[in-house]
Amino acid sequence: MKEYQSKEVRNVVLLGATKSGKTTLAEAMLFEGKVISRMGTVEDKNTLSDNNELEKLNQRSIYATPLYAEFAGSKINFIDAPGSDDFIGGAYSAFRVCESGVLVVNAQQGVEVGTESFVRRAESQKLPMIIAVGQLDADKADWDNVQNSLKETFGGKMINVQFPAGAGASFDGVIDVLTMKYYKGGDVLDIPAEYADQAEEYREQLIEKAAEFDDTLMEKYFEEGTLSEEEIHSGMNKGITSGDLYPVFCVCGKKDIGVKRLMEFIKDVAPAPACKEDGPASLFIYKNDVEQHLGEVSYFKVMSGTLTTGMDLEDPVSGNKDRFSAIYAVAGSKKEAVTNLHAGDFGCAVKLKNSRSSTTLSIPGSGIVYDKIQYPAPKYRCAIKAKVQQDDQKLGDALKKIAAQDPTVVVEYSKELRQTILSGNGEQHINIVKWRLNNEFGLEVELFAPKVPYRETITKVACAQYRHKKQSGGAGQFGEVHLLVCPAEGELNTKFMINGKETQLNIKTQDITELEWGGKLEFYNCVVGGSIDLGFMPAILKGIKERMVEGPLTGSYARDIRVFVYDGKMHPVDSKEIAFIIAGRNAFREAFRNAGPKILEPIYNVEVMTPSEYQGAVMSDLQNRRGMLGDMGADKGFAILKARVPLAELYRYSTTLSSLTAGSATFTMEFADYQPVPGDVQTKLLADYAAQEKEED
Ligand SMILES: Nc1nc2c(ncn2[C@@H]2O[C@H](COP(=O)(O)OP(=O)(O)OP(=O)(O)O)[C@@H](O)[C@H]2O)c(=O)[nH]1
Ligand SMILES: [Mg+2]
User: Which of 40, 342, 392, 417 is deepest in the core (most CB within 10 A)?
Assistant: First the structure.
C-alpha cells in the first residue's frame, strides 16, 4: 500500500436511519477502492462490513466497522455505523475520529426520525455532513418527497449537487451540476438535453451558494457571474466544514451508481484531518474488539506525528508501554500490514497491553493525552444473574469483557439493591449481550426487572429519646439520647416546641454530610450542661448514619434530614461508644417514623421524538406510566414530547415505544430528581417491605 500523507487522507462516518443502505453503500465504496473484487449483500451475509457473527444473524449492523478505500491517490477511511438507536455507541466513537459524515437518506422514506436523530447528534458534535440520497432504484423512491423533507430539516443549508436521471426501475444514473456530467453506470457522459434546463438551474444555485462562504469568491461571482470548479470546491469546503452547507448527492449502493463520484467529491472537497504531522507520534484508540485467531484488536487514529513499526508508545495515564511490532491498515476483517501511518490516518494493532478504547498512546515523555469519548446515557436497565449461582463469578468476568469492548454496555453491582444492574441502549442491545453470554461464554443468565433505588425522607418535626442500658454479666453499657429531627430544607431554624415547651436550641458543634447516595445529613449538637460528653457525639452520629443506610420505612437510603441532639444521660462507668451508637440509632428511627416519613422515587426526564401520527398514542402511554407531560413541540415535521416519568414505570419503555410507533420513534432519558411517591404506591411499598422483613425473620 502507498504511504499516505495527512492531506491525502479523508475520514468519514456513514450515518443514517436503520436500513437506509449504509452497509450496502460501504460495500460499493470498497469495490470502487478495489479492496474487494465482488460486492456482497446484507441478505447474503457476505459484506465486508457486517462480518460479525451477530450481524450476519440479524442482517443489520451492530458494531461500527472501520473500512478504507484507496481512491485516485487518496485514502478514504470510512466507518460504517449502525443505524439503530440500540447500537448508537459506534457512531459516537466515529464522531471522535472522523472529520465529516455521509448521511444516507433512503429515497423511499425521505428524512426519518432515525435520520433526524443522527442530524441532531452530529450537529451537537459539530460534525460536517454530506447527504447521500440512496435506494433511488427502488420502486417507491420519491425524489420530490426527499427534497421536501430535506428542506424541512436543513432549510437553506442544503444544496443539490446532483439529481437523479429517472426514478425507480428507470433510474440509471445521476446528473451532477458541479462537473456538469451525467454519470451512467461506469460511464461519464454529457448531460442529455432533457435534463439540461434543470441542470443549469441547479448549477446557478450551487455556485451562488458556494460563493457565500468566502468574500473573495463572492466578489468574483458578482463580477464574472461564475466560478471555476476549483473555486466552487474551495467555497463548498468552507461551508461544509463550518456546518453551514449540506450538499446533496444521489447514490444507489446496490447497483453501484453514483458511488465513485461521491468518493471523488469526498477526496476533493470533504475536510481533511487537522492533525499535527510533525512532532511526537500519538494515537487515540476509538474501538477495541476481540477477533478469532488474533485476540484483542485496537483500532486507532494517529493524532500527531508518524507511527512507525517498532515504535514504543506509552499510555501517559497508566505509564504502561506498548511496542508496535506490527501495524495494519484495516477494512473490516481484512488487514494489510504497513510500515508507517501519518497523522490523521486510521489503523489497528493487535494484543496491545493498553488496548482499551478511549486510550491515548504517545511518545514517552511527550505528555499528550486526549479526552475520553463521551457516550450517551444508557436508557434500558435490567437486573441480571446467572441461572446457577456457581456461575456468578464467571458472569462478572464475562460482563467485564463485553463492557470493555462496548462502552455503551454498563455493568454495576448495586450494593443498595443487591443486584447486578446491566444497562444499555435498548432491549435489542441487551439481547445481544445475552446472546454473547450464551454463545461465547457458555453462560445461562436470567434478566429481570431491577429494583428501584427509592429514598426515604421526613416532612415534619418530631422528637424521640432512647435509653440503651445493659447490665447483665460483666461490664455494663449505658447511653441515653434525646433528639429532634426535621427536614433539611430552608433556613436553619433552632426554635422548636419540645415536650410542649418552646425551646431555643444552641448549637455547640455541627457536622454536615453530603451523602454518597444524594442529599445530606445535618447533625447539630445542642446539648446543655454537659449531659453528654462531646466525645460521644461521633458515636451518636455513627448510629444515625447506620440507620440512614437502611431507612426505617423500606430499608432504602434516607436523605435530607436535620438532627438536633439536645439532651441525654451518661453513666460514670458504663457509658461507652457502643452504647451511644445504639441509642443514637434507635432514637433516630423512632423520631423518623413520627416525622411524616415519605418514600421518594427517582424521576427521569424523558424526551420522545415521533412522527406526529403516533403523538396521541405516545402521550397516553406516558400518562399511564404516571408521566407528567411537559413541553410539547414540533421539530422539522416530527412531534417532540417531554415528560417527567418515575423510573419505576420505565422498565422496557424502549420496547413499548417501538411497538407503539412501528419502530419510528426515538427517545432519551436522563435522571432529574427524587419526588415523593403517591400515597397508594407508598402503602404498597410499605406492605411489600413488611412482608419481606417477615420472610427474613
Ligand atoms: N433497492 C435498493 N435496496 C437497497 C439499496 N441499498 C440498500 N438496500 C437494501 O436496504 C436494506 C438495508 O440495507 P443496509 O445496507 O443493511 O442498510 P444499513 O443502513 O446498513 O442498515 P443498519 O445497519 O441497520 O443501520 C437491505 O435489504 C438492502 O438490500 C439500494 O441502493 N437499492
Ligand atoms: Mg448497516
Answer: 342
